[in-house]
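Bug #77: duplicate submission created two jobs. Keeping one. Sequence:
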Amino acid sequence: MIVRRRFGFEAAHRLPHHPGNCREQHGHSYELLVTVDREVDPKSGMAIDFADLKRTVEHEVIADLDHKDLNRVIDNPTAERIAEWIWRRLADPLPGLVEIELCETRNCSVLYRGR
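Kept job's structure:
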């Protein structure tokens, strides 16, 4: 069963190697979608409790990124690098993690499915 939960966080960054406006400090209202694929537990009827998923993502990711300068957390924090960082933080505590989608804007996102 594929289970997905959506999260939001606010953060600023600058891309030191970008030739355009993104080279300067700016912020985003990020949207993060975390997807796991697990068997449904016959006893609980759930693949994962949404509350457990929320608790894990908030502890492992949101607490370190929300209202932060991402350049202090991740080197050259492009959407791609942020997604990889999030994956590394969630892979162990979330067995069955299959996909991270990080949206920088309503129209722009990256998908990461591990290596």
